[in-house]
Amino acid sequence: MTKKLFIKTYGCQMNVYDTVRMGDVMAPLGYSLADSVEGADLVILNTCHIREKAEEKVYSELGRIRQEKEKKAAEGSRMLIADGGCVGQAEGEEIIKRAPFVDIVLGPQSYHQLPEMVTRATREKGGVVELEFPTVQKFDLLPESSAPQGSAAFLSVQEGCDKFCSFCVVPYTRGAEYSRKPEKVIAEARRMVDQGSVEIMLLGQNVNAYHGEGVGGRNWSLADLIDALARIDGLHRIRYMTSHPRDMSDDLIAIHGSEPKLMPYLHLPIQSGSDEILKRMNRKHTVDFYLDIIDRLRKARPDMAFSSDFIVGFPGEGEKDFEGSMQVVEKVGYASAYSFKYSPRPGTPAAVDDKQVPEEVKDERLMRLQELIRNKQTSFNESCIGRVMPVLLDRDGKLEGQLLGKSPYMQSVHVKNAGEYRGQFVDVKITGAYLNSLAGEVVGIQDNINFRKAV
Predict the structure, then answer these.
(1) Between β-strands 178-179 and 158-159, what pairing exists: parallel, antiparallel or unpaired?
(2) Among 13, 14, 18, residue whose Cα is nearest residue 44
(3) pLDDT, position 361
(4) Residue 251: which of 231, 218, 222, 229 has the closest Cα?
(5) Which of 92, 147, 310, 362 is most buried, most CB within 10 Å of its CB?
(6) Burial 338-361 (b: 16+ CB within 10 A, else e)
(7) Which of 68-77, 104-113, 292-301 has the lowest mean pLDDT?
């Protein structure tokens, strides 16, 4: 009999990719994906540890799932509950202590062992915990076949981070940097294209640190990998995230100017506009270093647009430091940006810093920064009015006959009366701009796709 598997995904695109692969791992055991926890035989929480109070949110969700587990037990059947992802890695045995009804705890580097863990949990008493970092083994043992992701797909090429920013838990929950072999990545990308994907987002905690060892022992850079992927017939768009400024190499900057399949949009977090705060964050770059990268990328590709991350109220941040962040937003003119109040993550150096900023100061600064970011984002979107952009219309909109797609700059584009163009790349003339989206009308169908010319 087919068993039901429900996975709830938190956090980053890497977790979205991991969720797809967990479904692939469990499919040979007869598990098919379910849309809800009700009636599921196996429930997995694929968790994220980046945001504040992540653990408490997970325990709250586990409490709700417990009710379904007890209901199923009363009917004479069994539900297994697994806590995976970064919270699973960080909390470990503590999850079993606080929530003894949880059957499995596993980290993000261990989900290739899910079938074995499910078997053990079925037979043994007590929770099964696996928190090792066998990164190479994980990718080697994942099944080659993967469930289709649709027209736009995620592809993990790198995991872990060696930067050890003082606010970040990633090195502790994802482990050291590891890059997949390029031939493995290219083969998986080809399978995705064969399944209908025309756009691929390359993923990594520090993706531009990619250094996969190819045949003959040569280390490939991310630029080398993008160049090879661009040769795949049927793959029309390539993106990558998340990047660290220290790893924006010369060849990666150059390929933004030479490869039209590589989209002119880059998420490049700076975190703060103050050199003093960047030093306290252990970011290993300065504001001028970051802005020079922005300038070089715009020289290579004049239509480049950027997004970023900002942390407000980091320990030791004064008003002058904060104003530096405001100045960076003004200088770069981001198409979008994410901003957050600093919140201590247990186990990180910044969590025990004695120069914590009062919450009311964080709140006030965050409000000012987000207002500026909204203004810049709105201005960027309004600058697109009148332009013709290539859009892959692959999703339903809210209105009858309305379709949605992504612009080269990751904006959602709404097109009315476009039902006949579903699944096609079309030229869309932008007629309206909003804070988080654009509106437009189809003016042509792309036969020979040349994104640079169309943009």
Answers:
(1) antiparallel
(2) 18
(3) 98
(4) 222
(5) 310
(6) ebbbbbebeebbbbebeebbeeeb
(7) 104-113
Structure tokens at 149: 């992701």
pLDDT given for residue 111 in this prediction: 81
Q: With helix as H, strand as E and coil as C, how does 301-332 read?
A: CCCCEEEEEEEECCCCCCHHHHHHHHHHHHHH
pLDDT higher than 90, residue 16: no
Whose CA is closest to 128, among 174, 82, 97, 67? 82
φ, ψ for residue 368, nearest 5 deg: -65, -45
What pLDDT score does 57 carry? 83
d(CA 17, CA 229): 18
Q: Kindly report the number of other CB atoms within 10 A of residue 218's CB atom.
A: 10
First to last CA, the chain: 51
* Residue whose C-alpha is closest to residue 155's, from 171, 174, 142, 168: 142
- Name the percent of the chain lying above pLDDT 90: 66
Alpha carbon distance 122, 2 (integer Å): 17
Q: Which residues pair with 181 in a beta bridge?
A: none
Look at residues 5, 60, 62, 70 and name the one whose alpha carbon lies nearest to residue 32: 5
The answer to whether the beta carbons of residues 40 and 6 sit under 8 Å apart is yes
Query: Are 89 and 170 contacting, i.e. CB atoms less than 8 angstroms apart?
Result: no
Distances, alpha carbon 223 to alpha carbons 104, 143, 208, in Å:
39, 27, 8
Radius of gyration of the chain (CA): 23
Strands 152-156 and 199-203 come out as: parallel
Angle at 231 between CA 228 and CA 235, to 5 degrees: 110
Angle made by CA atoms 222, 227, 233, in degrees to the nearest 5: 130
- Bridge partners, residue 241, by sequence: 203
Give pTM, 2 decimals: 0.81
Asked whether the predicted pLDDT for residue 167 surpasses 70, the reply is yes
Average pLDDT, integer, range 172-181: 86
Residue 454 has pLDDT above 60, yes or no: no
Residue 192 CB burial class (10 angstroms; 0-12, 13-18, ≥19): buried
Burial of 410 (0-12, 13-18, 19+ CB in 10 A): middle
In 3D, which of 184, 186, 202 has the Cα closest to residue 194?
Answer: 186
Q: Are 238 and 202 in contact (CB under 8 A)?
A: yes
Tell me the C-alpha distance between 328 and 274, whole Å: 9
The helix (H) or strand (E) run that includes residue 40 is none
What pLDDT does residue 85 have?
84
| Token duo for residue 397 | 């909109």
Q: Are strands 199-203 and 388-396 parallel, antiparallel or unpaired?
A: unpaired
